[in-house]
């Protein structure tokens, strides 16, 4: 009999607990939920477990402060770390989160040597680099979550602008998951129609700008933390693509080694996600202007990577 997938979610805060819930409800497998705070993963884990009979779910979940229960995971999702407060950029979290991400990677990766790792903690591209360095895993198995969320925000704002379902929008976002991200209208369509045919330049520019500030807009409303429903949905979609070997094309942060003429930096590009993790990186042509903006975004990630000391 084929055994169920095991997914470890590290960090049982807003994003982690919501990812755990989505994974159970999407019936992707059993979850080990880990956090440094005593009682929190246990309490949330038990609460989620008690939702299973109501939802008709057979997946199991255990909350813990240690890593034994994570051994043999197929997938590790890292959400541990500080979240933004109003006025902070993702980069302001760098030094605190480098320490946390390297610590949790060191504790979890050796126990699950065949796992793939999805990194959610911000600044995400830089944290994916840290997880890759510390785990020693091949680059195909360490993947940052950012583009799926940025594209979802882009799709949402286009749908609001046009009064149509976001489901009909295919959006394309390139570059780091930071202030320099690059929503690309030229590759964004509604039911196959380029948005450049449906929206004027001013509306496109304002939707692009709102997408770039999508995270900050929510932080300024919440005040005590940052977005978690859409980030958790994005991480769960990536988990599903990997665990079910869907070979979906999703924008993810991956280590580029020559693709897009970039080497040694994690950044968001379209990839095929399947059982082997990143199975292929898709390359598209960029205009000179897009290219310049992409390079600026990569440079910002590179600076962050250098600041980690790894
Ligand atoms: N080991 C395990 N868990 C840790 C550690 C550690 N060393 N350090 C912190 N944590 C846990 C905290 O105890 C907390 O429960 O990480 C959790 C973070 O949860 P929240 O503060 O609710 O933050 P959240 O909104 O979930 O965001 C987490 O994801 O989207 C990013 O920018 C966001 O970096 C942030 C991360």
What does the oligomeric state look like here? Answer: single chain
pLDDT < 50 stretches:
none
Q: What is the CATH-assigned architecture of the largest domain? A: Alpha-Beta Complex
* Mean pLDDT over all positions: 97
Cα-atom radius of gyration: 19 Å
Cα distance spanning the termini: 42 Å
* Structure summary, number of beta strands: 14
- Portion of residues in helices? 40-55%
Let me know the CATH homologous superfamily of the largest domain: Lactate dehydrogenase/glycoside hydrolase, family 4, C-terminal
Number of domains: 2
Structural class based on helices, strands and sheet pairing: alpha/beta
Given this structure, which CATH class of the largest domain is correct? Alpha Beta
> How much strand content do the residues show?
15-25%
Largest sheet: 6 strands, parallel
**SSE run:** EHEHEEHEHEHEEEEEHHHEEEH
User: Taking strands numbered 1, 2, ... along the chain, how are they ordered across the largest sheet?
Assistant: 3-2-1-4-5-6
List keywords for this structure.
20% strand; six-stranded parallel sheet; single chain; binds adenosine-5-diphosphoribose; Rossmann fold; L-2-Hydroxyisocaproate Dehydrogenase, Chain A, domain 2; three-stranded antiparallel sheet; alpha/beta; 310 residues; globular; 9 helices
Structure description:
By secondary structure, this protein is an alpha/beta fold. The chain is 41% helix and 20% strand. It has nine helices and 14 strands. Strands 3-2-1-4-5-6 form a six-stranded parallel sheet, sandwiched between helices. A three-stranded antiparallel sheet has the order 7-10-11, with helices on one face. A hairpin with a 5-residue loop joins strand 12 (248-257) and strand 13. The mean pLDDT is 97. Adenosine-5-diphosphoribose (APR) binds next to helix 1 and helix 3.
């Amino acid at each position: 009999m084929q055994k169920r997938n095991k997914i470890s979610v590290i960090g049982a805060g807003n994003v982690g607990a919501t990812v755990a819930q989505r994974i159970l409800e999407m019936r992707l497998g059993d979850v080990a939920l880990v956090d440094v705070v005593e009682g929190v993963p246990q309490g949330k884990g038990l609460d989620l477990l008690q939702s299973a009979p109501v939802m008709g779910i057979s997946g199991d979940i255990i909350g813990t402060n240690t890593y034994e229960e994570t051994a043999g995971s197929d997938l590790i999702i890292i959400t541990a770390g500080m979240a933004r407060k109003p006025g902070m950029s993702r980069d302001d979290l760098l030094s605190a989160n480098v320490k946390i991400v390297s610590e949790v990677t060191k504790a979890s990766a050796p126990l699950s040597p065949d796992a793939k790792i999805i990194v959610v903690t911000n600044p995400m591209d830089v944290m994916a680099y840290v997880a890759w360095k510390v785990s020693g895993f091949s680059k195909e198995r360490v993947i940052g979550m950012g583009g799926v969320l940025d594209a979802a925000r882009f799709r949402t704002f286009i749908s609001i602008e046009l009064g149509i379902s976001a489901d009909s929008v295919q959006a394309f976002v390139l570059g780091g998951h930071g202030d320099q991200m690059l929503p690309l209208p030229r590759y964004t369509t509604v039911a196959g129609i380029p948005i450049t045919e449906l929206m004027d330049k001013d509306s496109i520019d304002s939707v692009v700008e709102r997408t770039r500030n999508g995270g900050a807009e929510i932080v300024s409303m919440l005040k005590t933390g940052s977005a978690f429903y859409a980030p958790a949905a994005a991480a769960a979609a990536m988990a599903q693509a990997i665990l079910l070997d869907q070979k979906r094309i999703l924008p993810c942060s991956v280590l580029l080694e020559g693709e897009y003429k970039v080497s040694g930096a994690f950044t968001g590009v379209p990839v095929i996600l399947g059982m082997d993790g990143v199975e292929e990186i898709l390359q598209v042509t960029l205009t000179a202007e897009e290219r310049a903006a992409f390079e600026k975004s990569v440079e910002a990630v590179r600076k962050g990577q250098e600041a980690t000391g790894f």
